[in-house]
Amino acid sequence: MELIDWCVLILTITFIVWYGIYKSRGSKNVQDYIKGGGDARWWTIGLSVMATQASAITFLSTPGQAFHDGMGFVQFYFGLPIAMVIICMVFIPIYHRLNVYTAYEYLESRFDRKTRTLTAILFLIQRGLAAGLTIFAPAIILSAVLGWNLTGLTILIGALVIIYTVTGGTKAVSVTHKQQMAVILTGMVSTFFIILHYLPENIGFQSAMEIAGTSGKMDILDFSFDFENRYTLWSGLLGGTFLALSYFGTDQSQVQRYLTGKSVRESQLGMIFNGLLKVPLQFFILLVGVMVFVFYQFNETPLNFNPAATETVLNSEYSEQYQDLIMDHKQLETQKHNLTQNFAEAGMEISEAQKAQFHEKLNGLNSEERDLREKAKMFIDAADKDAESNDKDYVFIHFILNNLPRGIVGLLLAVILCAAMSSTASELNALASTTTIDLYKRSRKSEEDEGHFVKATRWFTLFWGIIAIAFATVADLFDNLIQLVNIIGSIFYGNVLGIFLLAFFVKHVHSNATFTAAFITQILIIGIFLLDIIPYLWLNLLGCAIVMLLALIIEKFSGNSKVTT
Amino acid sequence: MMEKPEKYIWKKSYSLVLIANAVYIVLFYILMKSFA
């Protein structure tokens, strides 16, 4: 890191924190503090929704995913536009009509207080843990690569977010999201063009795409019905719709973004904006990863991009075998670079037959390289089962630090920190709002003024910020933390979505049936998870199906036919 | 079960989102066929 990188990084982050505090000064009532004044326009909502979803791990992981596995991950987002339409048609008009502060508040007007409280608590458990991970995940990668102190970095990210989120509430979160998205887009677009510029003179965009295609990186769509393939067109359309509906429709960290809308129309347009741009944005981030892959066809790469994992294996009994692998990899890369250089130098003079021959040879060498990387992972796992041998999170940051020009490195680090801050801010903001509105305010017997609840929300933001930082600082004590948080999410998310779907679409089901069904479902899902009957990702769908089915059965046998609106 | 009450109003912008995303998928298909 050069001085100019530090300057760019520090100035960008400081400006955003200052801007958040400055633009949100004077929030004195709950409407201002939790709903951001309720005057947000559609572009603010759209950018805020996108910034909330795009965490630091999105920008660290996604290009690495494309580097290793190609563009297929974009299919994961195909269900999102469908979910956006459902949310615009059903969720937003109801939330606005009831003028709620949180999604769970609606459940009391539809069912009763106990259903609202149960759902709010399920959200707090799941999102409270996820907030810690949102800080921890980028911190551990940046500390491994840059040598920065992990605890210090975790506290720094958390503290910066706490400063403007506590001070300005939802408005500060929304206005900083716009700046953060501007930094993120500038950084990613700059990187894309810099990579193209770094390719040899005769390698234009089309040749780069051909090289990527030869190596299987342009297999964007998978029409198969194979359940073993995680990303297919069908899993994207069906599973993606379901997941996006849960996340954008019932998770307060997203609901709070569109509740800030000036009107139903502004909120709807904000979500439409997200539905229009999300797939191209993800496609573009993956394309940056593919261009990093093409760049490395002409330049050296490490055998494994995670420096900590490499160090672990080199200090183990497998050091000698690993060094042999490194030598084999170097020889392979030399062959590959000779081949790609010759291709680049030949330029337009190359015939179609020669081009096909080049692609075949390159494909063979890349296949051999993949095998070497797999062997490297096996040695890392054998050296230390807790070491992160999957290096996809480290590919892009390795590229940034070793290849980008001065100043741009600082900008890209600002991109990663901005993304971490934007997601964390939304999470803390939502956790505090839910704690205040659904638990604290609802349980108060005495009438309090607005200022009291603004103060309470501030304290709860600080409280959840400290919890998130504390969880993030001890997170490396847990094995496979991301999986742990995903498991917790899968255990609760399906049940929560099922409750909301009952509330919106099955009008004859009442509170007691819903609450009993939700309670039984939660126990059943935890039981199914403990007995390891199905992969945990399916618990989402199962939880949603069970709670809806059980509620319908209980309602039928309870004999209560009064219609609730 | 998914009875559609009158209050759920379809807007042109919803069609736009769905059509745009269908077009993206077609473009991805063309891109894949061109380079894969």
UniProtKB/TrEMBL annotation, chain A:
Membrane topology note: Multi-pass membrane protein
Location within or outside the cell: Cell membrane
Main location: membrane
Coiled coil ranges: 315-375
PROSITE patterns linked to this entry: NA_SOLUT_SYMP_3
Stretches that traverse the bilayer: 6-22, 42-62, 74-96, 117-141, 147-169, 181-199, 231-250, 271-296, 453-475, 481-506, 513-531, 537-554
Keyword hit for Coiled coil: yes
Family: Belongs to the sodium:solute symporter (SSF) (TC 2.A.21) family.
Name by which UniProt lists this protein: Sodium:solute symporter
Native source species: Autumnicola tepida
Lineage: Bacteria, Pseudomonadati, Bacteroidota, Flavobacteriia, Flavobacteriales
